[in-house]
Inverse folding.
């Protein structure tokens, strides 16, 4: 029996893989998607973790999914619906004060003025400045990076077209673009605001998923990255997907199938077949073979090139660069089943508008920087930045009547743990454990204690919890090092440098093998751009 033949095989049914498959199918290609888990979606999934509770187990909000992809793949027709958060943020402070950011600009300015009238006057200019920078950065998302270094007249023309995108910026905006790519989130915000409370509320977007603190150079770009995109045409807004994040992936899968793609689950790939320097298909772990002249991997770069591909087939310098590609994560997520809503001491009552926001427990930049200090020496933060979200405020169908699901996303919890040293070495279970399998539950218990400092009723309303350490993220979702972005989004690992210099155009040293996941430009987040861009490059071969 001959192996099944396709025009293209996509390894990994995450949202980028599904996007790539849908566009290839739309172009008339016969496409096969192979997903190792029993459901598609990668990190964008909805799972019934406990009976009656449907949880967005990993990614939990949307904003970056490209409008072009939503429109061209008709995702709304396939069930994609988003409720924009309002309020956007709620920050609680130990002194009993609180800060809201609303969709209504005037209400937000009134909130900021409670902390600093000067910052309230500055905030519209800050938003306009960020909007201008975001427009430039966004214009690059659905673009294949130019060749690096430029080769010939064609390569030079691509760089000139890139330069044209920033031609309309004035001197201040051009300087701002340089700063946003090089500065820390803290330094960038210090140029605009004086209130510590305002600054830390904005700075959280600069460290989510980052391997660095708010004073680490490059985190200003992560802040900008999270300000791109929007919901229903409103830039900068984030929202909850009806049905959980799995509804994003299911809509993409439905579109891919509608365009003829075949999607197989429980189909882990063991090896990419290469003959005479060209990709020719894949072998599954059960021995089944599928053949195609194009293979697009939605796995992270290390899994793609060092695990399912014989690395001896790669140029030595490329293989060495992939081995050095930094992809250890520092994020941990706890999913909760609740029988009620948390009540904040600083703003008591239930239900309240704050429950529809991203709720921050991180009172100052110094607090977050100290949390990073622990992680950079290999220990979980003693007092981490914590973001709480409750999607059931918008979509009650995700939990039994009167109950809720809540996600706690926190920084920092390093993938590689080291023995504690010193008097302020971060969280320790009393035994100096260096295994997440030992620390998982003690640390989750500690996080509940921290939440209880702000929400004293939290222990009374928790029905159950699921703890996903960086090690669990690696095991469950196939993320090397537990990095939610498939690799650090630092300056030297972005754009023409992602995943490695000279190979940022989705092609790889193996002819016919492409990279379509977040390890390629423009990086992480549920945006679909790497999958879209990769499909476009594949279709250039036709």
């Amino acid at each position: 029996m001959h192996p099944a033949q396709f025009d293209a095989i996509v390894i990994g049914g995450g949202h980028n893989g599904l996007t790539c498959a849908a566009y290839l199918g739309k172009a008339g290609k016969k496409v096969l998607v192979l997903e190792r888990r029993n459901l598609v979606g990668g990190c964008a999934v909805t799972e019934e973790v406990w009976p009656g509770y449907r949880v967005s187990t990993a990614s939990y909000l949307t904003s970056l999914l490209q409008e072009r992809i939503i429109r061209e793949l008709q995702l709304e027709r396939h069930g994609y619906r988003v409720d924009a958060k309002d309020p956007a943020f709620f920050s609680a402070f130990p002194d009993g004060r609180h800060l809201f950011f609303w969709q209504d600009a005037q209400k937000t300015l009134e909130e900021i003025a409670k902390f600093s009238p000067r910052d309230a006057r500055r905030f519209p200019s800050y938003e306009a400045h960020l909007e201008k920078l975001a427009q430039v950065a966004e214009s690059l998302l659905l673009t294949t990076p130019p060749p690096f270094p430029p080769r010939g007249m064609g390569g030079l023309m691509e760089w000139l077209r890139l330069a044209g995108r920033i031609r309309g910026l004035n001197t201040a905006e051009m300087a701002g673009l340089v700063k946003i790519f090089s500065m820390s989130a803290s330094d960038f915000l210090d140029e605009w605001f004086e209130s510590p409370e305002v600054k830390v509320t904005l700075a959280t977007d600069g460290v989510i998923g980052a391997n660095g603190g708010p004073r680490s150079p490059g985190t200003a770009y992560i802040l900008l990255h999270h300000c791109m995109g929007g919901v229903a045409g409103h830039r900068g807004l984030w929202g909850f997907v009806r049905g959980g994040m799995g509804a994003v992936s299911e809509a993409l899968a439905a579109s891919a199938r509608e365009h003829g793609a075949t999607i197989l689950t429980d189909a882990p790939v063991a090896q990419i077949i290469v003959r005479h320097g060209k990709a020719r298909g894949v072998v599954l772990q059960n021995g089944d073979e599928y053949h195609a002249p194009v293979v697009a991997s939605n796995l992270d770069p290390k899994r793609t090139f060092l695990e399912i591909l014989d690395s001896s087939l790669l140029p030595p310098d490329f293989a060495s660069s992939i081995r050095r590609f930094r992809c250890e994560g520092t994020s941990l997520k706890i999913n909760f089943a609740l029988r009620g809503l948390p009540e904040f001491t600083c703003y008591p009552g239930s239900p309240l508008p704050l429950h529809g926001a991203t709720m921050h427990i991180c009172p100052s930049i110094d607090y977050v920087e100290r949390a990073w200090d622990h992680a950079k020496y290999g220990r979980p933060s003693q007092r981490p930045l914590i973001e709480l979200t409750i999607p059931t405020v918008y979509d009650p169908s995700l939990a039994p009547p009167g109950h809720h699901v809540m996600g706690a996303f926190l920084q920092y919890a390093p993938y590689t743990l080291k023995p504690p040293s010193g008097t302020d070495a971060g969280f320790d279970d009393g035994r100096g454990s260096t295994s997440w399998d030992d620390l998982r539950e003690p640390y989750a218990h500690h996080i509940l204690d921290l939440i209880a400092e702000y929400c004293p009723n939290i222990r009374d309303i928790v029905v159950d919890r699921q703890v996903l350490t960086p090690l669990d993220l690696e095991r469950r979702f196939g993320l090397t090092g537990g990095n939610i972005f498939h690799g650090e989004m630092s300056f030297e690992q972005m754009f023409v440098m992602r995943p490695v210099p000279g190979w940022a155009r989705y092609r790889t040293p193996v002819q016919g093998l492409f990279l379509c996941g977040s390890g390629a430009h423009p990086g992480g987040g549920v945006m679909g751009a790497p999958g879209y861009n990769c499909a476009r490059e594949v279709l250039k071969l036709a």
Remarks:
- Residues 127-228 form one domain.
- The chain has 17 helices and 22 strands.
- The two ends are 28 Å apart (CA to CA).
- The longest helix spans residues 117-138.
